[in-house]
Amino acid sequence: MGIRLSKPWESLNPDTVASLPAQLGVYQIADDEGNILSIGCAGANYLFGMRSALEYEIELHGERATRFRFEFTSNYRSRWDELLMLHLYDNGRLPVHQRDEEGRVGRLSPN
Amino acid sequence: MDFSLTEEQQMIVDTTRRFVQSEIVPLEDELDPDAGSVAPEDYDRLVTMTRSMGFYGLDIPEEYGGPGLDTTTRALMAIEMSQHRAGLYNPCYGVFGGAGLAQLYEATDAQKERWLYPTLRGEKKGCFALTEPSGGSDPARAIQTRGFKDGAEWVLSGSKLYISGADKADYALVFARTSDDPGRNGVTAFIVDTDTPGFHVRRVVHTLRATHYATELQFEELRVPEENILGEVNGGFAIANDRLSRQRIPYAAGCIGPAIRSQEMAIDWAKSREAFGSPLAEKQAIQWMIVDNEIDIRHARYCVLEAAQKADSGGRFRTEAAMAKLVATEASGRVVDRCIQIHGGVGVTKDLPLERWYRELRIRRIGEGPSEVQRLIMARDILGGSFK
Q1: To probe the interface with B, which of A4, A52, A74, A107 has the most B CB atoms within 10 Å?
Q2: What does the pLDDT read at residue B278?
């Protein structure tokens, strides 16, 4: 199983978000250049799962956030931590607004 | 066996129950159903409370500053501390403090200074690296990680699987084969700093516990100084085995809390929910499930307290601990399963804690020695005549 989120990017806009099922999972948000702006999880506290989580991200990042990719999983919390660890391994830092998470996230050194 | 509580035990149970119901359960209303931690400010506030109650560091021996609870009282607390959504694996979200790796209490003074005391002060974290891809139920024979002496150092190569907390640990207790003996006499325990070159956390292993993951480790020419050996060379299995026996009683007790809470929820539901013109509680099918739950809960509680009392009396308790682990993990799983059935559709939703307990209790039949190994331990003792 590939551990990185490698699905194709999709356009982030209210229409694509509205077309998603209200399931639980993880996602990445990026700008036009492919810079990751957020790594998040759509947990069970969101009213409509992935849809509600992505609506929140659109509100948070505004027009900078243009792309997203996602994965539905009931292990949304451990998968989210895994994606944060991978991002930290690949980039040395987490996305700017998630730097508070760095103290909480573990270390991973994948092959 | 007299299972009546002393005045002090009753007070501790009542205090713990109030703490869980008034401080922990309300926090969970706002948390993700699979959350494994509370906000740092809540954690700090609750730790202040457990410290003032004199209950912080429950499992730390008295001579190291712990409260000095006996096994029975500790088991009674475990039953109470687990009666909330995250309670099975994160009782009270850790605000009663940890004790570190029990094996470190057997360490040398220098090792204690370097790893044990910083752990007790909350400055360092350790992890326990025993299980390998080749197996976990029979670790003495399954261990293939090798250790070779090279001058004043040992060189470790191999891998470990299903290791909790390695990605955040400052050090790991690593068990490696250091002789040609294929069994328990050829294993040595090493304390390894996780920033040592050659120590790799290769991947996350996702499980039924949605909030928690295990890890896979790889050691590549990992060099460990001689002074990092815990105990004797080739004497590591006894250290590992000691932990496995000691852990079984509180591990078993922690399973009973969710079963008790599930049963309370099922009784409330059965009395208030109506179907076919009468409350569920009036249907024999439901009544029998409630009765079977009560039998399972009392049986598990009896076995846990019997094992705890035997441990407190200073006698051999290996058989009783194995029985407690087997009965409590299996009985609690059955109770939660029946309670989901009584609740119907809402029982499998994340609106209630039942689905989380159901998933997590399934792991308990495997963790800390699966049911089959517990039966093996008991069979050895009973047939070998050491069980009186």
Answers
A1: A107
A2: 97
